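User: My instructor asked us to take a sequence, write out its structure as C-alpha cells, and then describe one feature of it. I'm not sure where to start. Here is the sequence I was given:
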Amino acid sequence: MHMPKERITRHSHYNLNYHLVFTPKYRRHVFVGEVRERLMQVFRETCSMRDWIVLGMEVMPDHAHLFVSVPPKWSPSFYVGSAGDISAQTIQRYIESQRKHQVDDD
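Assistant: Let's start with the prediction itself. The C-alpha cells for your sequence are:
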C-alpha cells in the first residue's frame, strides 16, 4: 500500500489527497469487462497528464473509487471534506477491502 507523503513544488509543500467515487446513473452494473478496463486506463492517463499520483483505485460493477494525491492547483467542483493522515490510511484500507469483496463475490 502506497502511503501519501508530502509533495514539494517551487511554490508549496502539500499533502492533498482526494477520495473520488464515481457512479453510473441508477448505479447500474456497467463497469465490467472491457468497460472496466477502459475506465481504469482513462483514470491512469488522466492522472498522469495532471501530475496526480494514484494512491488507490478500484472499479466495481456499480461504482469506482479513485484515491489520488493532487497538486493544490486542482480542486474538485463538488463536495469536499478534508482528511488527515489517519483518514488517508482508512480510505486506502477501505478501497482494498472493496477489491477483496469483489474477488470473494466472483
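For the description part of your assignment, you could build on this observation: The longest strand covers residues 53-60. Try explaining in your own words what that tells you about the chain.
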